[in-house]
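Recall the central idea of this unit: under ordinary conditions, the amino acid sequence of a chain determines the structure it adopts. In this exercise we apply that idea directly, starting from the sequence alone.
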Amino acid sequence: MGAGAAVVDITARRRVNCPETAYNIGEMPKLIGKAVTLAEALDALVRPGELYERLDGEKVRCYACGHRCLILEGQRGICQVRYNRGGTLMVPHNYVGALQCDPTEKKPFFHVLPGSLALTFGMLGCDYHCSYCQNWLTSQALRDPVAGVEPMEVAAPELVEIGRRMGARVFASSYNEPLITSEWAVEVFRIAKAEGYLTAYISNGNGTREVLEYVRPWVDCYKIDLKSMSDKNYRQLGGKLENVLATVQMVHELGFWEEIVTLVVPGFNDSDEELREAARFIASVDRNIPWHVTAFHKDYKMTDPDNTSAATLLRGAGMGREEGLRYVYAGNLPGLVGDFENTYCAGCNALLIGRHGYRILKYEITSAGVCPKCGEGIPGIWWKDERPRQIAEHPIPLTYRV
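Accordingly, the structure predicted from this sequence is:
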């Protein structure tokens, strides 16, 4: 199926049930009675959570993310979508806010089944409030009054069926922070893994040991955004640097396949010192972790800095190699970053995977995951049989509303 093929429609029969109201998605409810707010719609699509502890006085302590929110009865966590109902933490369930079939390289994972598709779903809410978020419509729902999209009710088996029909080999949770909706992701991934698919998180890395151990049996691949090496910068975004550095280490320790991305924002995190410090930290964990330096473009509330230049990406990627990282990539500017789109053998420097954007031009890694020229093992998750023809090199939007 090519990028222009007919899309999957999973729609209008679904219903959102809210207090005092119910309506079919795609139908305009009559303007009588009580209007349905986004918060009411989301609060109806929940189930009791698993990533928390009950405390005295109907309080709960959530540990889905590094904030470890203490949530009083009737209140929400920082993410806005996990809330305390009578001493039970209610968490998002049975809906998507965004759904698309993407090239796996878009996540980006460059060492995971190159040329495959990833059925990518997201919910609403985030534990950060990044001013340059490219997914702010979903991530900042209930926090920013201009953000938010209509939730689409869908069951986990249906998502897996959609991915199967689209030819996906990977199921990924993204578009908002997956850690805060881990119970739902695990429900989907249990089914997907039983059918032989890979699974992935695209995360800001604000994790806890509890949530990582909870998802580990069901999540194969984990991409972390290392947004800065400055705690001051992280606090502007709503996080703490120490939490992310600890998560990078725990993800590696627990055996996920890990790749790290730094979105290089001019004037925010693009200094030589900061980029080199990021590369040095990653190398201290494992020199084989792929590091992607990617280009910022103006979005959401951050419209002052210039878009990131190819020269800046090349500078950052070069520092990664100087600090000993074996697989460094420069992204978002296809054709402008030279050999930093490709994968080379760290042993003999043979070209193993040639890329232009998300298009795979060449693939030479053997089914045993080694370089055919020198036998060097190439870390990653590779095709065990002959690599199938690439279905699409661009995202395939899935229509799920009338």
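The longest strand covers residues 257-264.
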